[in-house]
Amino acid sequence: MKFGIRKPSLKRSISARTSIKRQVIHRTGMKMPRGKGYLRNPKKYAYNKVYNKTTVGFFGLLKKLFK
To answer: Are 53 and 1 in contact (CB under 8 A)?
Structure first.
């Protein structure tokens, strides 16, 4: 598990937004309501919950500094 600042990755950011899996799930209406990710994949939900609380994004940090 990572703690601290995450390194931004432009390649991963673009691939996450343009993935075929994401397009199929959104266009067929199979997406889960916000906050209900634990129903689809509880293990991933728990990991992401801890990860997002223990790390901070580089651009989020900049946003807080210059707010």
So the answer is: no
pLDDT tens over the chain, length 67 residues: 667 888 888 898 898 888 888 888 888 887 777 778 888 889 999 999 999 889 888 888 888 888 7
The tally of CA atoms less than 13 A away on the side-chain side of residue 32 is 10
Closest of 55, 60, 38 to residue 2, by C-alpha: 55
pTM, entire model:
0.60
Reported for 37-40, long-range contacts at CB under 8 A and 24+ positions apart, including other chains, are none
Pairing state between β 4-6 and 55-57:
parallel
The answer to whether 45 and 38 have CB atoms below 8 angstroms apart is yes
